[in-house]
Write a structure and sequence with these properties.
Blueprint lengths: L19 H10 L3 H17 L2 H16 L23 H17 L2 H45 L2
Length: 156
């Protein structure tokens, strides 16, 4: 008895929705002649497709290499280490490097250059915030030093 559409009593039925992978798996685990036939079919497909896979990958790599030309980063003068005298570790030097990188990002394909530009904007904002905090910390140190000098001068 099936679940009837006219509303009369009948046996309930359950519908199952399978994706393709699950249907293949169920077919292959059947313990009968049809299951063995399906397993042999998928094994033969696997054997024929494995040798072609490296060639397909190589063709795809060559296609991508042709699409994207080599990316040559810009050449800029890196600031020296912090311990060397005369090194420029200021916000201006940081902005200069970021500006040079943004100019270079504009020469790249859009799908590469655009995210790089956004990342450089974020980096610029972080540097500005960091330098602002450093300036504020130096101001507090200066004020604290003045208070300390006054306090130490009172004891003499």
């Amino acid at each position: 008895m099936l679940n009837r559409s006219d509303g009369k009593a009948g046996k309930r039925r359950t519908e199952y929705h399978l994706n393709l992978d699950m249907a293949k798996e169920l077919a292959m685990v059947e313990n009968n002649e049809k299951g063995r036939q399906i397993r042999r079919y998928f094994i033969s497909l696997e054997r024929t497709s494995k040798p072609a896979l490296p060639n397909q990958l190589e063709a795809r790599i060559q296609k991508l290499e042709a699409k994207y030309q080599p990316i040559n980063p810009p050449v800029w003068t890196r600031p020296g280490p912090l311990h060397e005298k005369g090194t420029d570790r200021s916000i201006d030097a940081s902005r200069k490097i970021i500006t040079e990188l943004k100019v270079w990002a504009n020469t790249l394909p859009h799908d590469i250059g655009s995210p790089l530009w956004d990342a450089l904007d974020d980096l610029s904002n972080l540097l500005i915030a960091g330098w602002t905090e450093v300036d504020e910390a130096l101001l507090h140190i200066s004020v604290g030093t003045n208070y300390l000098k006054r306090w130490m001068g009172r004891g003499k």
